[in-house]
Each structure stands twice: as structure tokens, then as C-alpha cells.
């Protein structure tokens, strides 16, 4: 596979997914080549491979013009280190810091080497994702305080918010430096929901792993469960029945619509249009109740399983789902006309929380928020896995990069997902919905890549010879999008922060792991 | 102007709120100290502070749903507030991450007496899939006293309401079906 002038000797590993190994020193050159052709760094994580006789490893997933490239480099067992990639792809910064906290693998010469996921639950010289980690160590209760970057000057003061916020939101800390009402700087501190998810995967059987993957970020259940199962099915070289694949896409689009409806409602709520909240949450509730009726769970939890899906849809269910899709389509059009005409709402949405396209490209803004800032990437469109290769998804994009653009994105994607759902319901092939997976009996790796409602979700797995999980890294797009919230709020007033934050609606649990 | 469209839509939608469910007293984990005087303090309403102590955000989806028009919680006197100092009841999702342990304890201490704690979700009730580990304290009652546990992954809005009502109900015996 060529990126730039050079052939990087990557092998095709799945549809649009490439795999390769290289010296850690080569990573820099590869990262530069990817950057040069307009690609992005999507994920970075580490693993402890000492039991395989390989020391440690650093893994990077790049988005390139040919698809997703997963490259790994072996690092020595003593003082493992690799070249800093954050000076090429700034989104790598927090991923590199988390990799150090969890595994003790260091990014050499990184400018920012502060801790990230580690607060006080374990000491600085102990690394929980190492295989020889002693879980019985007592918590240290944060003796080394986190060094926030301070803004100083006449009239500058700080507002510290969180970890517990005023609304029903996940926990995280925001440190605002402001003059009057205007935000000079925002610094995020996260990791509060770090609950040892990756460690939990170790030694798990494959079916339980799917349940845990779906609970990395509950609002993206189907995206994570599908990506995990795709990865597992690569390791076992299984081909899943067509009908199951179509049902997975149905579940993913149902999830996308549920989240978008909720967000559009909350965006109305945040500008005092309670009417919008009530209307969209009424539609969302109808949507969730039908999911519960048809598939046994309001959020479709545990419907996607290794080897296929656990729930099928009958003829009557298809009719009912199609009827609701039609009704929601018509009602959202009506409501969109109101949002479009509402002067107060438009005034608050437009030109608020802007992330300009060049900044989005430089910092790697991805997914829905990325597409609102001209970053036209959608795995369903450019690198479609089945059944998306037969669905001709059309991508919504905007250039404004403000709250309005991110709201418009959601309207556009609701309509498109409703169309996809009707298409799936009409064209879904008959047949089985699940096969029994045959474990390979050797150590093997796999990677799944799914365009969730928030953006690209990837799950990388390694399965041991005994058929149990050795290492799972689930990657939520919130990793790379959170730093752009810091950018988007600059120069805005503090009271607009909740609106801007909601327009991104990023996950805390997803990247905190 | 959008006003006439809004009014049209409101009239067309009509009133969709559903009647409140019964309290499910089987969710109680300990005897309530519900004397007449305590109920007098709270009158007919309860103020809730939600604390996400480390959940996957699945339970939060259902807490949000509870605020939608189908459930009409304001009409029942159930209200979400912005600070534990304003709250009668803490609604806590788990598992409690070690990184949230101190914050949760502080929120509990900041809530004025008398107070209730309702732990929600399989993780809040038992630690769930995450259990106890180097990073997780497990269930909520490992960290603060809990009055009512509402299991489910996530529990439905109706189950949440039944749990909240069980905490504040003066009934001693269960009437929920």
C-alpha cells in the first residue's frame, strides 16, 4: 500500500482496512506522509506483549485515502518509548498520555507529558494494563495535583466547573479563564469515569466481550458492539450471514436517529425553546418504545452478538417500523421549519462555537462535528462495509463549523438515516441471523471500524490461543473531538458554553474507559 | 414568524403525559424513616440531584427520557436541581469509579438531612459488568449509604420513577404490580 511516494508494505486485513508492522522510528515518516496526503490519526494505543516474547507495542490507526491503516511497532521491554506523534497530529496528545498512564510506554520528546487518565487511583510508577499489574495496591488519593495551564493578567479570573455538573451530564472538569463574560481559555480535565474497562476485557470470553464493548459508551452501544464483533469475526475468519449484517446496519441507524432527535431537542432547550425539547423528546420516546417492542430493548442493548445478531424482525414489525419512520420524517420536517424560522434560536445558534475548517483539519476533528466543519469523512460513504456498499449513503456536510452547522448536520442525517432504514426494510435478504464462531486456536488479531452517530468507532482486539480476549482497545471519536470544544468556545461568552458543548455532545465514558 | 407554527403543533400534539406509576417498595434496601414530620418537610415534592459516578452514560439516557413529555415528572412534584445543597434525594449511577469516589462523598455530605439515595442501574446496584477493580469501587453502597436500588441496564424511565417514589413514599407495603 502506497502513501505518498513510499510503499509501506501494509497488507489488506479486511474491507478497506490495512495492517502493517514497522520500526518505531518509521512511524514518524509514515505519520508525515499521511498528514501530507490529507489523512488523519484516528487512534493510538499500546499493549503489553511480553508474554508473547515481544516486549511492548505501540499501535496507531491512520485514516488514509485507501482506508484505515493499523500499524504497530514493537518496543523494548525495558523503558519502552516511541517518537512523539502529537507534533504532527495534535489529537495524539491525550492518547499518548493515557498510554503512558496505563502501560508506561512513553512518547519521547512529547511537549505535554502530564498525566491524563491517572488521578489518584494508582501510583505514578505502576501501570494497570501491564500483565504483571498487582490489582491489590491501595489507592493513593491524588497526591500529585494536576497542573492546569494558568492565564494571568489584569482582570483574568478562573471558573472551575465539575467533575459533577449542574445538569444530567457525565462527570468531567472544565477550567475556564475569563475576562468579564468572555472565554479566554478553556482547559478540560477528564478521566473521572475511568473504570478499568480495558483491563476488564482481559481473559473474557468473546460473547461477554461484546456486551462490555457495547457499554464503553452507552449512547453508542450498537456502534461499539458492531465494531467489536467485526474485529472478532476477522480473528476467526468467519463470514456472518447477510441478513445479520443488514440488521446490524438497521440497529446502527436506529441508534443514530435516537441520538440525533435527543440532541436537536436539547439544543432547542438550551436556547429556551422548551417546545423543541418536548416535541423532539416525544418523537424520541416513540422511537425508543418501538425499539423495545420489536427488539426487546429501548437502546437495542446486546442485539449485536459475535457471529450475527440476537434479534430478527418479522413482517409485522417491518410495517410498524416503516410507518413510524414515515411519521417521524413528516414531523421532523414540520419542526425543522419552526427551528429555521425561529429568530431567537437562529440568533443563538449562528456564529456560536465556531471551529473553522482549517482548524478542524489541523486538529483532526472527526465524525458529525468534523462534517459540520468541512471534514468530509464518513466511513459509510468512502469506505463502506457491507451492507453500506449497497446503500449509497449520501453525506451531509457544512462549512460554517458553528452550533447551527452541527444542528443542521443532525437534521440532514436524521432524514438520510430514515431513508436508509426504509431501504433496509425493503431490501433485507432472508436467511439465518447468526452463525457459531470457530475459534482459531492461535493468537490472532482483528479490527472493526463503524461510523457511529458521533463519528468513527474502532475496536482492535487480540484473542489468545485459548479463545479468550487478551487485549481490547475500543476507541471513541470523542478522544480527538474534545480538544476542539476547547477551541470552539474561545471568544464566546460563558453562558453559551452549555449550548456549544451540547452541539458536540461528546462522550466522557468513551474516552475515559 | 414561528409562533403560529408552534401553536399549531402544540394543539395538534395534544396532551400525551401518562399517569404516574405506583411506587415499587420491593426496591427498598432498608427501612425508611418516614415519619409524618419528615413528609411534612418535603411536602408534596422531591428535589433530585443526579450524580454520574462513573456510568457508561446508558442510565443517563433514561434520566433524560424521564424529563420528556410522556412522564410529566414536574406534575408529580419530582424536580431535578442543579446542586446537592438544593436536593432531597441523590440519584446515583455507577459503578463508582475511584476517580469519582471523593466527589460522590462530597455531594452526599453537601446534601442536607434528611436525605435519600437511590442507586440506579445494574452497575449502581452491584458494580455490573465493571465490578470492583483498580479503577472501580463497584456498587454505590460501597461508598455512601443507599436507600433504594433500581436495577436494569439501563432501568426504564418507569422503573426509575417507581424507585424514586419508593424512596419518598410513606407506604409500608408494596402496591406496585
Task: Explain what this protein looks like in three dimensions.
- The complex is a heterodimer of chains A (513) and B (177).
- With 513 residues, chain A is an alpha+beta fold.
- Chain A folds into three domains: 107 residues, NADH:ubiquinone oxidoreductase Nqo5 subunit (Beta Polymerase, domain 2), CATH 3.30.460.80; 79 residues, Enolase-like, domain 1; 284 residues, Orthogonal Bundle (Cytochrome-c3 Hydrogenase, chain B), CATH 1.10.645.
- Chain A has 16 helices and 17 strands.
- In chain A, the strands form six sheets. Chain A has a five-stranded mixed sheet. Chain A has a three-stranded antiparallel sheet with strand order 10-11-12.
- Chain A is globular and about 60 Å long.
- Chain B is an alpha/beta fold.
- Chain B has a single domain, classed as Rossmann fold (3-Layer(aba) Sandwich), CATH 3.40.50.12280.
- Chain B has six helices and five strands.
- Chain B has a five-stranded parallel sheet with strand order 2-1-3-4-5, with helices on both faces.
- Chain B is globular, with a radius of gyration of 17 Å.
- The model of chain B has no long low-confidence stretch (mean pLDDT 86).
- Classes of the chains: A alpha+beta (513), B alpha/beta (177).
Amino acid at each position: 500500500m502506497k502513501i505518498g511516494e513510499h510503499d509501506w508494505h501494509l497488507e489488506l486485513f479486511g474491507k478497506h482496512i490495512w495492517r502493517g508492522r514497522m520500526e518505531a522510528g518509521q512511524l514518524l515518516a509514515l505519520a508525515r506522509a499521511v498528514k501530507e496526503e490529507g489523512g488523519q490519526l484516528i487512534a493510538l494505543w499500546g499493549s503489553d506483549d511480553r508474554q508473547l516474547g515481544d516486549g511492548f507495542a505501540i499501535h496507531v490507526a491512520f485514516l488514509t485515502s485507501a482506508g484505515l491503516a493499523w500499524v504497530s511497532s514493537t518496543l523494548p521491554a525495558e523503558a519502552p518509548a516511541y517518537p512523539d506523534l502529537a507534533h504532527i497530529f495534535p489529537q495524539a496528545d491525550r492518547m499518548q498520555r493515557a498510554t503512558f498512564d496505563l502501560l508506561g510506554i512513553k512518547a519521547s520528546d512529547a511537549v505535554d507529558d502530564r498525566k491524563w487518565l491517572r488521578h489518584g487511583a494508582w501510583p505514578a510508577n505502576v501501570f494497570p494494563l501491564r500483565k504483571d499489574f498487582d490489582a491489590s495496591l491501595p489507592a493513593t488519593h491524588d497526591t500529585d495535583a494536576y497542573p492546569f495551564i494558568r492565564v494571568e493578567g489584569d482582570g483574568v479570573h478562573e471558573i472551575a466547573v465539575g467533575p459533577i455538573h449542574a445538569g444530567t451530564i457525565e462527570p468531567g472538569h472544565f477550567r475556564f479563564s475569563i475576562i468579564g463574560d468572555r472565554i479566554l481559555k478553556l482547559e478540560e480535565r477528564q478521566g473521572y469515569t475511568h473504570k478499568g474497562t480495558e483491563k476488564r476485557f482481559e481473559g473474557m470470553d468473546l460473547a461477554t466481550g461484546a456486551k462490555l464493548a457495547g457499554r464503553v459508551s452507552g449512547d453508542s452501544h450498537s456502534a461499539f458492539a458492531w465494531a467489536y464483533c467485526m474485529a472478532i469475526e476477522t480473528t476467526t475468519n468467519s463470514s456472518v450471514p447477510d441478513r445479520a449484517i443488514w440488521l446490524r446496519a438497521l440497529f446502527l441507524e436506529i441508534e443514530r436517529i435516537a441520538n440525533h432527535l435527543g440532541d436537536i431537542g436539547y439544543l432547542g432547550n438550551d436556547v429556551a425553546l422548551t417546545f423543541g425539547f418536548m416535541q423532539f423528546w416525544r418523537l424520541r420516546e416513540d422511537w425508543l418504545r418501538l425499539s423495545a417492542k420489536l427488539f426487546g430493548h429501548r437502546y437495542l442493548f446486546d442485539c449485536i452478538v459475535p457471529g450475527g445478531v440476537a434479534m430478527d424482525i418479522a413482517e409485522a414489525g417491518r410495517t410498524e417500523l416503516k410507518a413510524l419512520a414515515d411519521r417521524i420524517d413528516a414531523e421532523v420536517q414540520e419542526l425543522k421549519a419552526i427551528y429555521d424560522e425561529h429568530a431567537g434560536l437562529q440568533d443563538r445558534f449562528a456564529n456560536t462555537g465556531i471551529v473553522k475548517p482549517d482548524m478542524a483539519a489541523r486538529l483532526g476533528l472527526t465524525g458529525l462535528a468534523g462534517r459540520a466543519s468541512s471534514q468530509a469523512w464518513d466511513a459509510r460513504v468512502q469506505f463502506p462495509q457491507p451492507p453500506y456498499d449497497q446503500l449509497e449513503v449520501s453525506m451531509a456536510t457544512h462549512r460554517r463549523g458553528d452550533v447551527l452547522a452541527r444542528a443542521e448536520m443532525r437534521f440532514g442525517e436524521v432524514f438520510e438515516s430514515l431513508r436508509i432504514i426504509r431501504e433496509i426494510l425493503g431490501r433485507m435478504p432472508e436467511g439465518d441471523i447468526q452463525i457459531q464462531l470457530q475459534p482459531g486456536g492461535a493468537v490472532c488479531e482483528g479490527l472493526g471500524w463503524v461510523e457511529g452517530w458521533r463519528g468513527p468507532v474502532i475496536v482492535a482486539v487480540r484473542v489468545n490461543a485459548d479463545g479468550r480476549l487478551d487485549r481490547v482497545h475500543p476507541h471513541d471519536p470523542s478522544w480527538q473531538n474534545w480538544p476542539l470544544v476547547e477551541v470552539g468556545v474561545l471568544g464566546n461568552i460563558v453562558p453559551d458554553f452549555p449550548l456549544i458543548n451540547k452541539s458536540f455532545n461528546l462522550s466522557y465514558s468513551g474516552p475515559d474507559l | 414568524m414561528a409562533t403560529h407554527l408552534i401553536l399549531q403543533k402544540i394543539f395538534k400534539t395534544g396532551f400525551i403525559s401518562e399517569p404516574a406509576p405506583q411506587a415499587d417498595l420491593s426496591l427498598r434496601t432498608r427501612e425508611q424513616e418516614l415519619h409524618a414530620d419528615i413528609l411534612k418537610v418535603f411536602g408534596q415534592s422531591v428535589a433530585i440531584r443526579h450524580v454520574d459516578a462513573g456510568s457508561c452514560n446508558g442510565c443517563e439516557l433514561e434520566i433524560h427520557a424521564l424529563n420528556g413529555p410522556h412522564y410529566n415528572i414536574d406534575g408529580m412534584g419530582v424536580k431535578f436541581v442543579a446542586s446537592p445543597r438544593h436536593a432531597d434525594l441523590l440519584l446515583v449511577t455507577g459503578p463508582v469509579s475511584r476517580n469519582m469516589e471523593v466527589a460522590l462523598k462530597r455531594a452526599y455530605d453537601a446534601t442536607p438531612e434528611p436525605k435519600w439515595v437511590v442507586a440506579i442501574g445494574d452497575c449502581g446496584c452491584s458494580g455490573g459488568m465493571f465490578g470492583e477493580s483498580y479503577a472501580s469501587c463497584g456498587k454505590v453502597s460501597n461508598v455512601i449509604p443507599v436507600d433504594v436500588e433500581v436495577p436494569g441496564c439501563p432501568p426504564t424511565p418507569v422503573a426509575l420513577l417507581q424507585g424514586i417514589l419508593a424512596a419518598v413514599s410513606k407506604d409500608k407495603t408494596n402496591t406496585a404490580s
